Amino acid sequence: MNNWTQMCDEEMKKRLEGLEKELTRVRTGRAAVTMLDGLKVQYYGSMTPLNQVAALATPDARTIVINPYEKSLISDIEKAIHMADLGIQPMNDGSIIRLSVPPLTEETRKGIAKSLRKIGEDAKIAVRKVRQDANGKVKAEEKQKELSEDDSKRIQKEIQQITDKAVSAIDERMTQKEKKKK
User: Fold this and answer.
1) 33-69 b/e with 16+ CB inside 10 Å = b?
2) Three-state DSSP class for residue 87
3) Using CA atoms, how far apart are residues 119 and 156, in angstroms rounded to an integer?
4) What is the pLDDT of residues 93-123, one digit of tens each?
């Protein structure tokens, strides 16, 4: 692998990791603390990840329990949950917050399917952008006579193969997530 294909492969892997992070936040009908990843709470003047200010647990398949380390954070945590628009109503009993994940309705399933398609398409666009950037740099080197035309074509073909592999990995992951949703 040469310089460009290696860089392209690394960038595409980063895009796939970003897709995985994004998919963990999508609701599938089961309670998972990963749904709260990326949720930040106002804590002493700065935005702090929820998992650093509270213990998170899933006692059953439909409930997430948030136990703040400081009870004064309960209202801030509730506010953050409302602002995150998770579609889940927090219930506060004074010391802990319970999130009941409702079963998926047909309408919710369609909404989730739509958001999954958008997430998948955004990931594919990001991968194609990496390909476009890498091909542009290869063509620029060819223009400056740093690469021969044959080498340029070969490298572009390798970049396309890496892109195809990444796109098929995205499709496969999206299919898995679709099945999990049902």
Assistant:
1) bebbeebebebeeeebebeebbebebeeeeebbbebe
2) coil
3) 27
4) 888 999 988 887 888 788 888 888 899 999 9
CA neighbours within 13 Å on the CB side: how many for 152?
15
Tokens of 16: 């796939």
Which residues does 152 contact at the CB level (< 8 Å), separation at least 6? 138, 139, 141, 142
- Give the count of alpha carbons within 13 A of 122, CB side only: 11
The beta strand positions in 7-89, using DSSP E, are: 40-43, 46-49, 54-60, 63-68
Ramachandran angles phi, psi of 30, nearest 5°: -110, 150
**Region of residue 177 (left: phi > 0; alpha: psi -120 to 50; beta: else):** alpha
Of 61, 117, 107, 66, the residue nearest 87 (C-alpha): 107
4 and 134 Cβ atoms separated by less than 8 Å: yes
Q: State the Cα–Cα distance between residues 57 and 152, nearest whole angstrom.
A: 53
Question: Using one digit for the tens of pLDDT, what is the confidence trace for 133-179?
Answer: 999 988 988 888 888 889 889 999 999 999 999 999 999 988 888 77
Give the C-alpha separation, 137 to 126, whole Å.
17
